[in-house]
Amino acid sequence: xxxxxxxxxxxxxxxxxxxxxxxxxxxxxxxxxxxxxxxxxxxxxxxxxxxxxxxxxxxxxxxxxxxxxxxxxxxxxxxxxxxxxxxxxxxxxxxxxxxxxxxxxxxxxxxxxxxxxxxxxxxxxxxxxxxxxxxxxxxxxxxxxxxxxxxxxxxxxxxxxxxxxxxxxxxxxxxxxxxxxxxxxxxxxxxxxxxxxxxxxxxxxxxxxxxxxxxxxxxxxxxxxxxxxxxxxxxxxxxxxxxxxxxxxxxxxxxxxxxxxxxxxxxxxxxxxxxxxxxxxxxxxxxxxxxxxxxxxxxxxxxxxxxxxxxxxxxxxxxxxxxxxxxxxxxxxxxxxxxxxxxxxxxxxxxxxxxxxxxxxxxxxxxxxxxxxxxxxxxxxxxxxxxxxxxxxxxxxxxxxxxxxxxxxxxxxxxxxxxxxxxxxxxxxxxxxxxxxxxxxxxxxxxxxxxxxxxxxxxxxxxxxxxxxxxxxxxxxxxxxxxxxxxxxxxxxxxxxxxxxxxxxxxxxxxxxxxxxxxxxxxxxxxxxxxxxxxxxxxxxxxxxxxxxxxxxxxxxxxxxxxxxxxxxxxxxxxxxxx
Length: 579
Ligand code: SF4
Ligand code: SF4
Ligand code: SF4
Hints:
This protein has 579 residues and is an alpha/beta fold.
């Protein structure tokens, strides 16, 4: 490959031809600030914060979009560059609702950080401000008074999710990001993934905050409040308290929730194990039934469910009928647990702590109320749980490690690995392999389905049967697989699809890692590593070996896919009109 040698601030650096100045500067040891740039997703130079001076050129150029040239001399922080960046920031601030003190992103806002670093005067430019709107629904708030028009959200919605429901409306001073014909987001085919929130550099996007509902339930003596925490929350929550990315804080998380005031704290890993029992059994039945729709596709990721309902309703028969682990968890609490401990299901208040924004929409779906009341009452994202812990003045660093409550708290690490792309598939294979061979197999690491590749395929030989599987994450990758199914080019038996890049570890409700870190570090891989490290050390790695799962079938459900299990643990899907 042709190489180019140039100088950045007098430091000579050699990089492959075609490299952007931004990356060459990094190699030379200089960080150039950015606001719109997102590695591999957004690099059209629209924010103009990354401007640099090039010897012999009058105009400043944008380092994220300009490529290196041989013998180029670049200067990243001359007085002219600094002044230009400061003016750009001050112009942004002149049209910005600067209520930093109570903003959801305060202390983790890229605009706030740069304004501080460049010593910006927030009143440098005063005058008219764009008339902006707040679009709020059951899962997401878009507050355009804090939008800097960087278009990262637009890029992620278009390129990563291929959904494209947001874009720039109007021209010039009236420009704003929104939906076509100024529709509200929940009147479009938005899949509620929340990935736009995670890439937003400011407080313009955040999840609908439901912490007040949880506090009210805890304060209500009539309510029996049960928290359930999803697999990937424990490997991300600590980041909100200053711990490194990929810290496993399961014990502190449980301890914090008990101090928040929960009556019980259970592990949704247990419900993930139940999903494997139900889904694995469903797969085995479909493999035997020549008329059943194959490939079967997983149904635990609600953004994905919205995607297929909006965009590929003709393929709905391929979905497993299993409820997601969140909904199985709530349903088990309000049926089995309520009966066993003689508690009125109407009094049980299930708080589901999820890495996900779409889960807030899942609880509102039809056919998710096994006991005649909603399976789950409220969903908090990992970020909201952190907010709740802080609001209760709990000293996270000083917390001891505590265990989930019994009798239903125990999950396996087959349930835990649901948090990373490929995890549901691997957990399913561990159980299906034991069932088909009738043995307790020791070789249970299915490494072909691990890792962050967008689409992974594997052929697995089990008891003389060859099972072809596929794993995909993001809707851009899901779309490729679905088009293959439609074209009859797909001979997989089982497919796992997750909405978010990397799976739930990188869900739309996880702690937001600012771009100056996420552009250089693979956040999803670090969080996934914490999950697989835990799995490696675990003594309980197969869902069907979970004693809680065994007890649930013995005492209540009889066997997987029984009539009762179908009524309580399975659901239905429907076509949605696309807007
Ligand atoms: S988005 Fe950033 S700069 Fe704007 S109010 Fe929030 S914290 Fe302050
Ligand atoms: S939630 Fe997902 S689908 Fe909806 S606008 Fe944001 S990125 Fe697009
Ligand atoms: S909402 Fe956020 S990500 Fe989208 S354009 Fe505005 S500032 Fe950028």
